[in-house]
Design brief:
By secondary structure, the protein is mostly beta strands. It is built from no helices and 9 strands. It is globular, with a radius of gyration of 12 Å. The chain starts with 5 loop residues before the first strand and ends in a 5-residue tail after the last strand.
Length: about 80
Protein backbone atom coordinates (compact mmCIF):
# COMPACT_ATOMS: atom_id res chain seq x y z
CA UNK A 1 0.00 0.00 0.00
CA UNK A 2 1.36 3.41 -1.00
CA UNK A 3 1.21 6.16 1.59
CA UNK A 4 0.80 9.80 0.58
CA UNK A 5 3.77 12.01 1.34
CA UNK A 6 2.74 15.66 1.58
CA UNK A 7 4.02 18.80 3.29
CA UNK A 8 2.48 20.12 6.47
CA UNK A 9 1.16 23.63 5.90
CA UNK A 10 0.04 26.31 8.32
CA UNK A 11 -3.16 28.35 7.93
CA UNK A 12 -2.60 31.48 10.03
CA UNK A 13 -6.17 32.74 9.72
CA UNK A 14 -7.38 29.61 11.58
CA UNK A 15 -4.11 28.89 13.45
CA UNK A 16 -4.17 25.31 12.14
CA UNK A 17 -1.73 22.81 10.73
CA UNK A 18 -3.06 21.10 7.59
CA UNK A 19 -1.99 17.80 6.00
CA UNK A 20 -3.71 16.15 3.04
CA UNK A 21 -6.55 18.67 3.26
CA UNK A 22 -7.46 17.96 6.89
CA UNK A 23 -6.63 19.71 10.13
CA UNK A 24 -4.04 18.22 12.44
CA UNK A 25 -5.31 18.10 16.04
CA UNK A 26 -3.43 17.89 19.33
CA UNK A 27 -2.19 14.38 20.03
CA UNK A 28 -2.49 13.31 16.41
CA UNK A 29 0.40 11.28 15.05
CA UNK A 30 2.15 11.21 11.68
CA UNK A 31 5.62 10.26 10.49
CA UNK A 32 7.73 13.24 9.45
CA UNK A 33 10.98 13.37 7.54
CA UNK A 34 13.43 15.00 9.96
CA UNK A 35 16.84 16.27 8.84
CA UNK A 36 19.84 15.01 10.78
CA UNK A 37 23.27 16.58 11.20
CA UNK A 38 25.06 14.70 8.42
CA UNK A 39 22.71 16.20 5.83
CA UNK A 40 20.51 13.14 5.47
CA UNK A 41 16.99 12.68 6.82
CA UNK A 42 15.05 9.98 8.66
CA UNK A 43 11.33 9.20 9.06
CA UNK A 44 10.27 9.62 12.71
CA UNK A 45 6.86 9.07 14.31
CA UNK A 46 5.74 12.23 16.08
CA UNK A 47 2.64 13.76 17.61
CA UNK A 48 1.58 17.38 17.53
CA UNK A 49 0.72 19.68 20.42
CA UNK A 50 -0.14 23.34 20.86
CA UNK A 51 0.73 25.85 23.59
CA UNK A 52 1.12 29.63 23.94
CA UNK A 53 4.18 29.49 21.65
CA UNK A 54 2.25 27.70 18.88
CA UNK A 55 2.41 24.23 17.31
CA UNK A 56 5.24 21.88 18.24
CA UNK A 57 6.24 18.20 18.27
CA UNK A 58 7.07 16.77 21.71
CA UNK A 59 10.64 15.45 21.80
CA UNK A 60 11.70 17.66 18.88
CA UNK A 61 12.68 20.97 20.53
CA UNK A 62 13.24 23.83 18.11
CA UNK A 63 11.86 21.95 15.08
CA UNK A 64 8.79 23.52 13.53
CA UNK A 65 6.33 21.10 11.94
CA UNK A 66 5.45 23.68 9.26
CA UNK A 67 6.88 22.66 5.90
CA UNK A 68 7.97 19.17 6.96
CA UNK A 69 7.15 16.25 4.70
CA UNK A 70 4.75 13.86 6.42
CA UNK A 71 2.99 10.56 5.85
CA UNK A 72 0.49 8.51 7.82
CA UNK A 73 2.13 6.56 10.59
CA UNK A 74 2.27 2.78 10.50
CA UNK A 75 2.31 2.69 14.30
CA UNK A 76 -0.96 2.13 16.12
Amino acid sequence: MKRKILQIVYEPERDRLIWNGWEIHCGQGLEVLLPIRDGSAVWCPVSFEYNCSGWYMPGQPGVSPVGLWARESTEV
